[in-house]
Amino acid sequence: MKIYFAPLEGITNYIFRNAYNGLYGNIDKYFAPFISPSEKCPITPRERKDLIPEHNSGLYLVPQLLTCRSNHFIEGAQELKAMGYNEINLNLGCPSGTVCAKGKGAGFLPNTLELERFLDDIYSYSESDGMKISLKTRLGYFNHDEFYDLVDIFNKYPVHELIVHPRIRSDFYKGEPRKEYFAYALEHCKCPLVYNGNIYSVKDHEDMNGTFGTVLDPIMLGRGLIADPSLAGKLKDAMSETDLAKFRKFHDTLYHEYQKIMSPDINVIYKMRELWSYWQLQFEGNERDIKKLLKAKKYSEYEEVVYRILKSA
């Protein structure tokens, strides 16, 4: 089974990816948080720092581009090619209001004529430059039935992989994914498919397999993998279990690495608090301490609560 790590803005940067890969592994592809190339700057220095090969040694990393301008996409792709990348991903799923208002991410999906022109351009480029281009999409913007037309459009192109998150824009990440539309994709899409959405446990994956009558492979995990870093190992090895010592080392590695590159202290605390908003799912019975942790503003406050939680687990 192949497992892909979904990009989560502000979380799955190179520090996180390296710490995770060194301790947990079992990931076949990591997808970097999106970059949004512009007229003046295809890739910012900060984005370049996250993507340079020396910060991603030993990882299969796929950069993701977010744009509705084909010339910007191609310029960004050329920069990435020069950095050594041969596969990139187009973000057609981001539901953020500011992103969609600019016609990017999920906001690009209802503009099907513009989308086709865009895909014409970028896949012409891909064939000339040998760049593999995958797509990460939602079912649509306004309603789920938009997906039928989108599948017809995607089938016109040599899509390397189509990653489907079976929700529409207004769903954001709430409610149950519309599994019947992924079933439609399994029957009608010409390109390789990747399922993404609401897999938080081995049972969730088994239930999905039962729903579709086939083993979902590859799959992309995001929030579920943040919440339980051992999930990929559990999916690939039925004997794998949650390892508290490994989790503590993972936590400590992230905590100390962020301290090296971030200031003031509160910014590190904010970063760790964001991670704990996911991790808390693994520490039932510690709700009171978790609440204190999510309000911590000083290292001393944070560390006291964290190590009390880990000691009691």
Q: From the alpha carbons, calculate the radius of gyration and give it in angstroms.
A: 20 Å
Quaternary organisation of the protein chains: single chain
Report the CATH superfamily of the largest domain. Aldolase class I
Low-confidence stretches: none
Our count of helices gives 14
Structural class by sheet pairing and helices:
alpha/beta
Q: Could you explain how this protein is built, in words?
A:
The chain is built from 14 helices and nine strands. The chain has 313 residues and is an alpha/beta fold. The protein folds into two domains: 3-236, TIM Barrel; 244-312. Strand 1 (3-5), helix 1 (14-23) and strand 2 (29-31) form a beta-alpha-beta unit. Helix 1 packs antiparallel against helix 11 (244-261) and helix 3 (70-82) packs parallel to helix 5. The longest helix is centred in the middle third of the chain and has 18 residues, at 112-129. The chain is globular, with a radius of gyration of 20 Å.
